[in-house]
Amino acid sequence: MTFGTIFFIIVAAIVLFQLRNVLGRRTGSERPPFDPYTRPEKTIEPQGNVVTLPNRRETGVTDAVVVDRYAAIDKIVPVAEPANAELRRIQDADPSFDAKAFIDGVKIAYEMIVTAFAAGDRKALKSLLSQEAYAGFETAIAEREARAEKMQSTFVGIDDAKIVAGETKEREVLITVRIVSQLITAVTSAAGEVIDGDPETVVEVKDVWTFARDTRSRDPNWKLVETQSEGA
């Protein structure tokens, strides 16, 4: 063995010794090599009576909070009432249905319809009523005009508007609402005499109106399809 060979063996031994000091020895407890395509797993650690769950994205669970899909309906109609179950079926048939928005819309529509009927405003009524309901209103207006009578109506307000029934018929959904309102109404003859009502007295009026909507129609508006006075 030449001096040059012995020299290179000594140098190699020194290098290996230094690498061992730098990298250390494997003891079997080392962490596995880092894999950039694998997300680290999170452990579940108890905190008192609370358990911290793993990230929902990692477990395949959506981040969205699970909310009772019928909560909005339950706020408008108690679960114990039959109408609640009917409204749930309506929401299943029409996911866009919003019970609160519906009631708010009914209140606005009620005032518009009562006012338009008193004024004989056929155009306004036609946009708010079904064809059948409009025909009945138009007939009443025409008969009133034929007698030269005038109807004066002042809308004071709505005391209560409550959904009492709901129904689904194929592609159509119907909701019935009991409305308690305060109105001042009077009908005068051609001579100006009051023949019905009182132009100075506020009267409580109780109506039961049914509204309908075609769930397949692009028109989101509901239309009045039937009216009756409570007890009629």
What does this structure look like?
The protein is α+β, with helices and mostly antiparallel strands. The chain has a domain at 71-229: Nuclear Transport Factor 2, Chain: A, CATH 3.10.450. The chain contains seven helices and seven strands. The protein has helices spanning 3-23, 56-59, 71-76, 82-93, 99-119, 122-128, 131-146; strands spanning 46-47, 50-51, 150-169, 172-188, 194-197, 203-214, 223-229. Strands 3, 4, 5, 6 and 7 form a five-stranded antiparallel beta sheet that branches. Strands 1-2 form a two-stranded antiparallel ribbon. A hairpin with a 5-residue loop joins strand 4 (172-188) and strand 5. Helix 5 (99-119) packs antiparallel against helix 6 (122-128) and helix 6 packs antiparallel against helix 7. The radius of gyration is 38 Å and the shape is elongated. The termini are far apart. Residues 19-59 and 61-66 have low confidence and may be disordered.
Summarize the structure.
The chain is of the alpha+beta class and 232 residues long. It has seven helices and seven strands, in the order H-E-E-H-H-H-H-H-H-E-E-E-E-E.
Mean pLDDT across every amino acid position: 80
In the CATH hierarchy, the architecture of the domain at 71-229 is: Roll
* Coarse morphology: elongated
CATH class of the domain at 71-229: Alpha Beta
Number of distinct beta strands:
7
Major sheet size, sense and barrel closure: 5 strands, antiparallel
What is the chain-wise order of helices and strands? HEEHHHHHHEEEEE
Structural class: alpha+beta
How much helicity do the residues have?
A: 25-40%
Query: Looking at CATH, which topology of the domain at 71-229 would you report?
Result: Nuclear Transport Factor 2, Chain: A
Distance between the termini: 123 Å
Low-confidence stretches: 19-59, 61-66
Number of helices: 7
Radius of gyration: 38 Å
Strand content: 25-35%
